[in-house]
Design brief:
The protein has eleven helices and twelve strands. By secondary structure, it is of the alpha+beta class. The chain has a five-stranded antiparallel sheet. The protein has a four-stranded antiparallel sheet with strand order 10-11-9-12. Strands 1-3-2 form a three-stranded antiparallel sheet. It starts with a helix and ends with a helix.
Length: 320
């Protein structure tokens, strides 16, 4: 229903902006499909209420709608373009760079056409001509890769507040299982995209890594059952799972020239020889799931509870 109303408001706005003379209720009713359907049943009162609500909603959104009375007393409506023209957009260097990087994300997310059009508008709004977000221009280049097929449908579902269902494979599971989710926000953290939302099956907030979503993301009807938080802490949640906020330490053996993300967070590194190093890393909830991803390149030395959790996860995967 929210999508239908948005479409109706858009059609009404286009009619009012596209006319050079005031349009009466009757003319608007005959021009917009939703109003035609409302009038087909002879529901004049229903149409009048719908039209008045739509008109008020558009005005609340900032559209300037004029009411004009003709010589014969008929009331008409129009939205003059000069009264509804936005002021020129000005961007500083940091804002232009951030929007240019966003355009690059959309290009990688199979939205190349929309991204190209957005980039042209950014050029007109102040993005320097010598800045091309699609090409490298230095030794360091910010990258936000988007390779998961789930990104685009989840981005749209977050925008439209639509529940979704998808098959999700946990790190310790051999087979995926369906998850019914009310999507809140997408965020990139250390090269991976994550979705935060309300998991209806578990009745709690959850964070999902997009690379573990298998098959298609399917939309579901109905509304969200819980309110969307004002602040969605995707990075903080994932960081806590990976031990980023831990106050304990774990000791692991790591194969040489492997596991660079682990090396980046290590508080101490010691060469053992024979192609192995010993690392001390922060230990917190979810570290076992992260270590499993490195397979035979990692051996947990201590604490014993972490070693046991990693072994259990590896055995579960092997059984699958």
């Amino acid at each position: 229903m929210a999508i239908a109303k948005a479409e109706r408001l858009m059609n009404l706005a286009l009619c009012l902006l596209g006319t050079r003379r005031p349009l009466s209720k009757r003319e608007l009713r005959d021009s917009i499909e939703a109003y035609v359907e409302a009038g087909a049943a002879g529901a004049d009162d229903s149409f009048n209420r719908m039209f008045e609500r739509d008109k008020d909603d558009l005005r609340e959104l900032g559209l300037v709608i004029e009411t004009v009375e003709s010589l014969d007393g008929e009331i008409g409506y129009l939205a003059r373009r000069d009264s509804n023209r936005l002021p020129p957009i000005t961007l500083d260097a940091e804002e232009a760079a951030a929007l240019g990087l966003a355009a690059k994300v959309w290009q990688q997310a199979r939205l190349a056409g929309a991204a190209s059009g957005a980039l042209q508008k950014l050029r007109a709004a102040g993005l320097p001509e010598d800045v091309d977000p699609y090409e490298a221009h230095g030794a360091l280049e910010p990258r936000i890769p988007v390779h998961e097929a789930a990104f685009e449908p989840l981005m749209l579902a977050c925008r439209d507040r639509r529940p979704v269902v998808f098959d999700y494979r946990k790190a310790t599971a051999a087979h995926p299982e369906p998850r019914h989710v009310e999507p809140w926000a997408l965020e990139c953290w250390r090269g991976h995209w994550y979705l935060a939302g309300f998991d209806r099956d578990r009745g709690a907030e959850r964070v999902f890594r997009l690379s573990r979503i298998t098959g298609k993301v399917r939309s579901r009807g109905g509304r969200f059952t819980v309110p969307v938080p004002d602040v969605v802490t995707v990075r903080e949640t994932v960081a806590s799972w990976a031990g980023e906020t831990a106050d304990r330490s774990a000791l692991i053996r790591l194969r040489a020239d492997a596991g660079y993300p682990l090396r980046a967070k290590a508080t101490a590194v010691r060469e053992l020889g024979d192609g192995w190093d010993e690392l001390e890393i922060p230990y917190g909830h979810g570290l076992d799931a992260w270590l499993v991803e490195f397979g035979p390149d990692v051996v947990v030395l201590e604490p014993a509870e972490l070693r046991a959790d990693v072994v259990d996860r590896l055995r579960a995967v092997a059984k699958g």
